[in-house]
Design brief:
By secondary structure, the protein is mostly beta strands.
Length: 328
């Protein structure tokens, strides 16, 4: 059985992330706790709404009720990227070349490395942002679809339309697919590498609840999702992605919903967190399960693997967090 080093924090903890082998825990109150030769605290926000790990650097990006967007380094130092007085910032994204994006109302803003800011206006509120892995290209999820913008040009947006409310967005690691989370208990995808003008749709439906967590496997062959009493894992290795193919259902538990999913950084192993605080590890190749943590006080709100893949940090909505050593 893997060993669990607990960390009890006060109140709702929004996210858990690793920067290298240092675990960070972000509370809704606005403090960032890190375990680095003892527990250390950064006072980041007057109310924190979102905390993500920038996929392009060893930093965290946060947004808060105080209208600030921060970049937080491995040493806990916080740098203000943007400040929007009297507004809440709940959507942020990290991109190539140290770019940072955030959403405010019907606009997304990209702050580039030189401090210049580019604004992209939409017809509806921006609910999710993601950068492509190559080139400064950003996707903005909104009602009835997604807008794709090239940051460095004044070219018009490429609109990917699909009726309904799109609440989050992700590019596949190879950039061939774009997938959104929807208010309507579904995922929707587009194949981006088709012929000019041919962005084929991918409908991924049948969830009993909203999908709030997505994770790509290390080479992008699989996309895991929450929103059901099992992790729903879609196959993306074929040229048309999951079209015509059934997903895997991993870690099934009767009537207990999956709240978070996180793929291992090197192997096709998935960590699955549940609303009762349990965490399972499941191997894709044979669906073999390992219990990583027994149920706790609250539901799992975040999970992150260390760069070595030996440690898994987790957070909960009741504050009972910790780090699991799977090599133990």
């Amino acid at each position: 059985m893997p060993t669990v080093a607990p960390l009890d924090l006060e109140g709702h903890v929004v996210a858990a992330h690793f920067l290298g082998d240092v675990p960070f825990f972000a509370t809704a109150a606005g403090t960032i706790h890190r375990l680095d030769e003892g527990e250390k605290v950064t006072e980041a926000h007057q109310g924190l709404l979102t905390c993500i790990r920038d996929p392009f650097s060893q930093t965290l990006l946060t947004g808060g009720e105080d209208g600030k967007v921060l970049r937080i380094g491995r040493d806990g130092e916080a740098k203000v990227i943007a400040e929007v007085p009297r507004k809440w910032i709940s959507v942020v994204a990290g991109g190539p070349q140290n770019a940072v994006a955030y959403a405010q109302g019907k606009s997304s803003f990209v702050v580039q490395n030189d401090g210049s800011v580019k604004e992209f206006k939409e017809e509806r509120s921006v609910e999710g942002l993601a950068f492509a892995s190559k080139g400064l290209r950003i996707a903005a999820a909104r009602y009835n679809g997604v807008s794709l913008h090239w940051v460095g040009t004044s070219a018009p947006a490429q609109d990917l339309d699909w009726k309904g409310a799109h609440t989050g967005v992700t590019f596949s690691p190879d950039g061939r697919f774009l997938v959104t989370m929807m208010q309507e208990n579904a995922l929707h995808g587009w194949k981006l590498d088709g012929k000019q003008g041919e962005n084929r749709h991918m409908r991924m439906t049948g969830y009993p609840a909203k999908v709030k967590s997505l994770s790509w496997s290390v080479k992008g062959k699989w996309l895991a999702s929450s929103g059901a009493p099992a992790a729903i894992v879609w196959p993306f290795s074929a040229k048309d992605g999951p079209m015509g193919r059934a997903p895997l259902e991993l870690g099934t538990r009767a009537n207990i919903m999956v709240s978070q999913v996180a793929f291992h950084p090197a192997e096709e192993v998935l960590a699955i967190g549940f609303v009762d605080g349990m965490i399972l590890g499941v191997r894709i190749s044979d669906s073999k399960e390992a219990l990583l943590r027994r149920p706790g006080k609250g539901g799992i709100t975040g999970m992150s693997w260390s760069s070595s893949g030996k440690l898994l940090a987790f957070s909960s909505d009741a504050g009972d967090c910790g780090v699991i050593d799977i090599s133990a």
